[in-house]
Amino acid sequence: MGMGAVVIAQTPNKDREAALLPAQQRVEFRRTASLDADRRAQDGARKLTAVRNRLQAAEKELAAATVGLKRAEEDLEYDRSRAVEAKKAYDDESASFQALRRVQ
Fold first, then answer.
1. Three-class secondary structure of residue 104 per DSSP
2. For residue 26, what are the CA distances in angstroms to 3, 13, 14, 33, 73?
3. Of 2-6, 45-49, 72-76, 94-98, minimum mean pLDDT range
4. Is the N end or the C end of the chain the one with fewer CB atoms within 10 Å?
5. 10 Å Cβ neighbour count for 8?
6. Which is higher by pLDDT, 30 or 65?
7. CA-to-CA distance for 51 and 34, rounded, in angstroms?
8. Cβ pair 28, 13 in contact under 8 A
9. What backbone torsions phi and psi does residue 11 show, to the nearest 5 degrees?
10. 9-24 burial code (b ≥16 CB/10 A, e <16)
């Protein structure tokens, strides 16, 4: 037994209750601290889950944007090749037309 228990055992009932009060306060404080720590841990877990969800959404958005960018690059390359072909056809037509004008 600790020293506090001896003091409590030697005091009358009213004094015993008064001596127990600090111990009860310590227990209550520890219980409150434990509940606060649990609450903070739950809040932290909720915040972490929210951040993970936002991260997953951002990753999906990034993946969709990457696919869109790849398609746009392919479309641009196709349009460039079509433009080169059109310019070549125009140059050929222009050269043929110029040749015909010279012949006449």
1. coil
2. 17, 20, 19, 10, 69
3. 2-6
4. C
5. 17
6. 65
7. 25
8. no
9. -100, 155
10. eeeeeeeeeebeeeee
Q: Over the stretch 52-62, which tens digit does the pLDDT of each residue have? A: 999 999 999 99
How far is residue 61 CA from its own chain's centroid?
12
- Specify the 3-state DSSP secondary structure of 11: coil
Short-list 7, 3, 1, 2, CA closest to 19: 7
What amino acid is encoded at 56 in this protein? Q
Mean pLDDT of the chain: 86
- Spatial contact of 19 and 8, defined as CB atoms under 8 Å apart: yes
Could you give the CA distance from residue 86 to residue 92 in angstroms, rounded to a whole number? Answer: 10
Residue in the structure block whose two tokens are 């015909």:
100
Backbone angles phi, psi at 74, to 5 degrees: -65, -40
Report field, pTM of the whole predicted structure over 0.70? no
